[in-house]
Amino acid sequence: MNLQLYNTRTRIKEAFLPMDPAHIQMYVCGPTVYAPPHIGNGRPVVVFDLLFRLLQAVYPNVTYVRNITDVDDKINQRALETGRSIQDITTEITGYFHETCAYLGALSPTVEPRVTGHIPEIIQMIQTLIDKGFAYENEGHVLYSVHKFADYGQLSRKNQDELLAGARVEVAPYKENAEDFVLWKPSTAPTPGWESPFGYGRPGWHIECSAMSAKHLGETFDIHGGGIDLVFPHHENEIAQSAACHDAPMANVWMHNGHLSVSGQKMSKSLGNVIVIQDLMHALNGQVVRWGLLSSHYRQPLDWTPELVQTSNAALNRLYTAIESLSDEKWTMPIDLKGVDTEVLTALQDDLNTPAAFARLHELVHSINTAIDEQIKVQLQTTLLNTARFMGFLTDSANEWFRGALSSDAISESEIQDYLDQRHSAKLAKDFKAADEIRDTLKSKGVIIKDTPSGQEWQRAN
RNA sequence: GGCCGGGUGGUAGAGUGGUUAUGCAGAGGACUGCAAAUCCUUGUACGUCGGUUCGAUUCCGAUCCCGGCCUCCA
To answer: What is the pTM of this model?
Structure first.
């Protein structure tokens, strides 16, 4: 295994050196559950799922922690706006998030901690920071004193003078310095709060990840991931908190996925171009979305377009076509990690080079389609199936992929069969005009007919 | 202003100091009653200007654009 990962902290691709090869530890910043997940939220889900799979393929034991942030002012705001309870909102959105992850073919993380379940740990960590002189109390708030932490800015490569100069926000009166950030803030009903040595209140934004990662992984762990936007201030502040608290580095490798745009524009409510994943579910197979999200390198920006959806769908059609002749039991067999194509593994080990991995899958398809020896062909098909499933694709059988209906108003199989019977008769009678008309009719209903030596076959156009 | 990325053929998108990425779209052909799928053939790319080199898209410098972050954001 020669896994190379780009480390945001050092800004270079490095050989991955686990602290303990017998137990790999990864933490990824999960969602704040205040709004249904959009397509951009799907990217880190899929990217770090792939990394999780890759790590599991090589190391015996991988712990993957992805948190749910269920205490946050955006949630409070939402509750205020809608009149709904906070619990109601966080439960619903967490459910959406889980549906989204399943839809995208992402494995469940090993641990999924929630902020509401870790308030004592958070309070304890804040207390330690106060005791060590890195944090101070003021007007019911606890703040982290950024200038006390010498390495502040190491991840995002910012220096403190510049941060001050760039501060655009009015400095809150309880802050000693403009760059200080909140660890704990006072709460009044109906805003959620907890009793603490610093008064009744709730945690600030960053502390939860420091507390939860420490609890579930330890003071230092191998990989910390998230979206590129989290580099500053979120991860910078996590480092400041954790390193100051534990006198140890928080994580060895910091990985960040690039952002996603929609048809060249930043997703925003005001533009009305936010693509909610729930809305895609009845129109697209989740594998198509997963393929699209992985079709450029994870650190590059990705533009989500109708063309991307179309080509992703076409790519999967091609893969499925190549292995459609495999016997059904192959689809239910567990993934054989030894049967994963080595060139795909090599590509993925190079900092998750998914475009190169996809290219290799297509090469396998081509080898299958040109194979003369039946035994070799089946061997290649098995490799392709294994490899694709290892990456989270070809999870449905070819039959489901080609003939499963995404929406309930799609034409039924028995109707299709009626048309096929009619067409079969027409063809026997050499009435090709009638046969072609039936084919056109079915096409307009989203069904494509293939005439093969063994008879008519059909599949949905998707 | 500060800090980061990026500019590759019609398009999406990897990569490399000299040798085909790959997909999609296009053209021609094979197969087919016609199609679909598949196969064969085909396009000929690396922002601009310098430098290093026998040779640069690939290294160095300059320059012009584009995007992100510095405030909530995956």
So the answer is: 0.95
